[in-house]
Structure formats: C-alpha cells, structure tokens
Amino acid sequence: MKRRPEMKLMSNENNTGLLFSYNLSVDRSGEMKRILGKSAASTLLTRKNTITGIEYRNDPTIFAWELMNEPRCISDPSGDTLQDWIEEMSAFVKTIDKNHLLTVGLEAVNPELWASSLGSDFVRNSKVPAIDFASVHIYPDHWFPHLEFEDKLKYVSKWMLSHIEDGMDEFNDDFGFVPWERESTYRVLTDHHADWPESRELLNKIII
C-alpha cells in the first residue's frame, strides 16, 4: 500500500514555516490572522509541484489536509471562537479544493481540567459539515511523565478504544514514544487496528 501524506495548512507550533506562532484570538488581530490564514492556505492549495506541474489541490498523492496542528484559543475557553474559525476556514478550503479530505488537526481531548482552558472540543469541532474525519494525537510520555511504562500502555489502549467507540471516521496522525519503548506502544496501536488490515500494514511499516 502506498503512503500518501496528510498535509498541514497551518501550525500552532512556533518551529514551523507554515504560519509562525499562530494563535487565535477574539480581538482585531484575530480577524487579521484569519485573513492571513486564508491567504496562506490558498497559496499552498494552488501551489504547483515543481516536478509534476500539478497543483496541490489536484495532486492525487496527497491524502488529506489538516486545518492546523492542534488549534487552540486560550482567550476564549468557551470554544465558540475556535468553533467559528473551524467552520469558516474549513468551508473556505473546500471552495478551493474539493478533491481531498479535510480534518481539523485536534489532539482529541474533550474539555476537562487542562483541556478545558484551550477553547477546543473534540466532538463539537469534528462535527463541522466541511470536516471529513476526526484526527487523534497521543503522546503518553509528554502527557504523563510520572506514570510507569505499563500504565502508559494501558492508557494508550483505553484511549484507542474510547475513540473507536466514538463511531466517527478517525485517523491517528500523531503518536509517539521514547525510542527504547515505542515498539511496544505501536504494537498496542496495531492491535486495535486489527480489524482494518490496511491500517495495520501501514503501522507495521512504520514500526519496522
């Protein structure tokens, strides 16, 4: 099975060249960032591959687009600002590119404790009409540095099962573990994808 990349239109991290230190806000600068975001997305979607001459929006080797890597809006923990942004930006992307799938780029954490301050809601954000599937990220080392390895594995298993039970089309596009323990973690991921041979084949290739 050939691998096709999921491309990020924007990033919430400050170490990428996509849209530096992009943070949503409710003030006038937030509106300007939406304008800049649309301009950046349009430029990327219509860019021509320098080798094939095919615009990215028509490129069959691209699997999907991600609106932003882990979008957040700390200035509005109610989630309304981020929800409005997702609805606006996803609809905008679809006016330019109707050929590719589109996801938000969420970590898939529902608003509780720490996550409640981020202004995101996994279920609500993923149900936007122009969003084709949900994204899931998991980094147990980063999230639970105090837990023992076996407890982290149990969490990964519980995490996978809970999102499978969501009944939504989902893609685990971000996951990782320290090098000396990651194979066991990836095996847990593949075990939960056993009913989907193509997913298992791809994850096994990543592990190998």
From TrEMBL:
Reactions catalysed: Random hydrolysis of (1->4)-beta-D-mannosidic linkages in mannans, galactomannans and glucomannans
Annotated EC: 3.2.1.78
Pfam families the record matches: GH5_mannosidase (PF26410)
Lineage: superkingdom: Eukaryota
InterPro entries: GH, Glyco_hydro_5, MAN-like
Keywords: Glycosidase, Hydrolase
Gene Ontology annotations of biological process type: polysaccharide catabolic process
Glycoside hydrolase family domain boundaries: 42-148
Gene Ontology molecular functions: mannan endo-1,4-beta-mannosidase activity
Signal peptide location: none
Keyword Hydrolase: yes
Stated family: Belongs to the glycosyl hydrolase 5 (cellulase A) family.
Name listed for the protein in its UniProt record: mannan endo-1,4-beta-mannosidase
Organism: Salix viminalis
